[in-house]
Amino acid sequence: MARGDLSNAEWAVLEPLLPAQPARGGQWRDHRQVVNAICWIKRTGSPWRDLPERYGPWKTAYQRFRRWAADGTWAMLKKQVIALAEADDDIDWDAQIDATIVRVHQHAAGARKRGSTVTNRGHARASDAPAAG
């Protein structure tokens, strides 16, 4: 088990909530390995193709993520996990955010691009026209 993977206690909560193996067709890859793969992708922000080999093929995790997003499995899972946590009084809805740590990239803040001194290039305004006279 890698750092950040689901613990046995976490898996014991999630496992009964996940869809069963399909009755017909091939067997799905182990849910725990795929959920750990999806969590790794979401935690790191890496592209799917950069998924470490220990999680199996990247395409399997991607397809399961997309399938469960489309059929509402993730929404149902979230709702049930929240309900379980509330029933155990194990959830705290009070949260605080310190806005001083939120930074905007200089380009998003409207800063002038480096080296650009001319503004509105090629567009003359009426006030720039020579005075008639």
From TrEMBL:
This is Transposase. InterPro entries: IS402-like_dom (IPR025161), Transposase_6_like (IPR052909). It comes from the Bacteria. Residues 6-76 form the Insertion element IS402-like domain. Residues 108-133 are annotated as: Disordered. Transmembrane segments: none annotated. NCBIfam families: transpos_IS5_3. It holds the Pfam family DUF4096.
